[in-house]
Design goal:
Length: 500
């Protein structure tokens, strides 16, 4: 029996979908992708990956969502996307790889290179580790089944709200300087401080003619770092996977005749400045509790799902240019370099007082030698900048950062994918200015250009706002910075609506 909504809104759409899901449990001792290459010390459970193939008329798009965080190195991502595109007969641009940005994960390749470390030279082909080979094998097996599984679907959507598990991690001192609000600083800001956060918890469900869910996608905005500790990495899907598992079980139990799990993918929001609470301290137990809280929000949204009034499938990839600022004065770079060298020397010697350096602030939860490693990572940028001055090359560097965004329309729902860690202000602009009833802005798509603040947050010296110092090599961002991502995404969404 066909659902009423399907007959009213989707029967003539021709929108088809197929989905699949698999899980992999990495080995104890596997290499992580943290900059210090720590090994995994505990395996709590498998990490899951969901594939969704969408098709309508001449458009076909494949979305891959995964709780494996290290899918964004440019050589790894390209290998995965290129392989799946070839298997499905798609342009590479029509295969989108979106990660939950889970830090409790492992590396896929022994030579993965992040996009923001590949500006000066092309990365080598990815040399996959055993877990990377297993991931690609599973990805191909599941992707190759999708075309024959395609069936006509209707789009349903709803919105929950969640304000208990995240906080805005960029703080401002009285003198106007910025800092990373770590857990102890958060506690000092007041009971259960959250600050300005994104509370939307949207949900998309694709249903077939029998009113059965074919797949679901949930989104939320927040770094999943409650169970994370870079010096004691565990393998765990964190609260996004916990919430998706609960949602999948609810969808299955509500449609017991299906007899199989419903693939539920997670889309990470613009979490550049948004953390989950209890970073480094919460552990698996609290992360699980946070996942259960988020799931409550999705289950509430599921009770008020509404059918899309449109069945349009539209897709576009566009290159956006983000303006870059000038290189800082040579004298400032030299002074910072001296400060870094003193910090590194004393932190390596175990000085617990080493907590601040060139605007970066570190928690006591990290050991002094680890803090020294984090400062060693930014030191080459200052050396690069000084060389630019000494060789009169400051005008020869790129004046824009180019990145490809992907904009998808699924009936009343828009999805915007960005290859970076956008601040939540970027996502808010997209969501509030979109012509569609629901638009879901997502970071962490395909590759990572690092943190991209909105215009209001340009210029800080804390970790996120000064992330250009971790690149090899690009200049700081200039206003309006990430706002141009939002403006271009909204322009494309308006174009989709006007062309209909």
């Amino acid at each position: 029996m066909q659902s009423e909504a399907f007959n009213q809104h989707e029967q003539s759409s021709g929108l088809r979908a197929a989905a699949s899901e698999f899980e992999i449990t990495p080995d104890l001792g596997a290499m992580t992708d943290h900059r210090t290459h720590e090994k995994a010390v505990e395996v709590v459970g498998p990490l899951k990956t969901t594939l969704l193939l969408l098709e309508s008329d001449a458009i076909r798009v494949c979305l891959i969502t995964t709780h494996f965080g290290p899918s964004t190195p440019v050589n790894v991502s390209h290998l995965f996307r290129e392989t799946i595109a070839r298997d499905l007969g798609l342009p590479v641009s029509h295969v989108l790889l979106l990660t939950s940005h889970n830090h409790c994960s492992v590396s896929f390749a022994e030579n993965g290179v992040l996009m923001y470390n590949a500006y000066s030279e092309s990365p080598p082909p990815a040399e996959l580790l055993p877990v990377g080979k297993e991931f690609l094998k599973s990805l191909r097996e599941h992707a190759q089944r999708l075309p024959e599984m395609l069936e006509e679907v209707s789009v349903w959507w709803g919105e929950g709200r969640e304000d208990r598990i995240t906080y805005n991690r960029k703080g401002l001192r009285e003198d106007g300087s910025s800092y990373f609000i770590r857990e102890k600083e958060r506690e000092l800001l007041g009971d259960d401080f959250s600050g300005e956060i994104e509370t939307c918890a949207p949900l998309i469900v694709l249903k077939n003619h029998q009113d059965e869910p074919v797949a679901a996608f949930a989104q939320f905005t927040g770094h999943p770092v409650t169970a994370y500790n870079p010096e004691k990495t565990i393998i765990f899907g964190e609260w996004p996977q916990v919430a998706c598992d609960i949602l999948a079980e609810k969808l299955r139990s509500d449609h017991s005749s299906m007899g199989q799990a419903v693939p539920v993918g997670f889309l990470q929001g613009c979490a550049g400045d948004i953390n989950s609470k209890e970073m480094f301290f919460g552990g698996v137990e609290r992360s699980t509790e946070f996942g259960e809280m988020l799931a409550e929000s999705y289950l509430a949204a599921m009770k008020s799902l509404r059918p899309s009034q449109s069945s349009e499938l539209a897709f576009q990839v566009e290159t956006v240019k983000i303006p870059l600022a000038s290189i800082p004065a040579k004298e400032l770079l030299e002074a910072e370099l001296a400060e870094m060298d003193d910090f590194i020397s004393r932190a390596k010697a175990g000085d617990e007082e080493m907590l601040n350096c060139v605007g970066l602030n570190f928690p006591t939860a990290l050991s002094p030698p680890f803090r020294a490693k984090m400062v060693e990572l930014v030191r080459p940028w200052n050396v690069w900048g000084i060389v630019l001055h000494e060789t009169d090359s400051t005008e020869a560097v790129q004046k824009h950062l180019e990145m490809e965004i992907a904009v998808l329309r699924l009936g009343d729902v828009g999805i915007v994918g960005m290859p970076c860690e956008p601040f939540h202000g970027v996502g808010t602009q997209i969501r509030e200015n979109s012509p569609l009833p629901l638009t879901i802005p997502c970071g962490y798509m395909n590759v990572s250009h690092g943190y991209i603040p909105d215009s209001e947050n340009v210029g800080g010296q804390e970790y996120m706002s000064s992330h250009h110092r971790y690149t090899r090599f690009r200049l700081p961002l200039e206003k309006p910075a990430g706002d141009v991502l939002a403006q271009e995404a909204v322009r494309i969404l308006n174009q989709f609506v006007e062309e209909k």
